[in-house]
Write a structure and sequence with these properties.
The chain has a 4-stranded antiparallel beta sheet, with no helix packed on it. It is built from 1 helix and 4 strands. The chain is an alpha+beta fold. Helix content is 29%, strand content 32%.
Amino acid sequence: MKVIIDRFEGDFAVVEMPNRKMVNLPKVLVPDAHEGDVIDISIDKKETKNRSDKISRMMEDLWED
């Protein structure tokens, strides 16, 4: 999903969603962004799986007899 930074208010970047709704996004998530910048928000399924697998291995090691 792509959103556009409309403006900054305090600790938030106000972004315009594809449906034109405005949403507050913490500025710490977009430290070098400016008004008008387009932000691409996506889910990294490969990294999610890697983290899940790593946690599963750690749990198996923890509960191993």
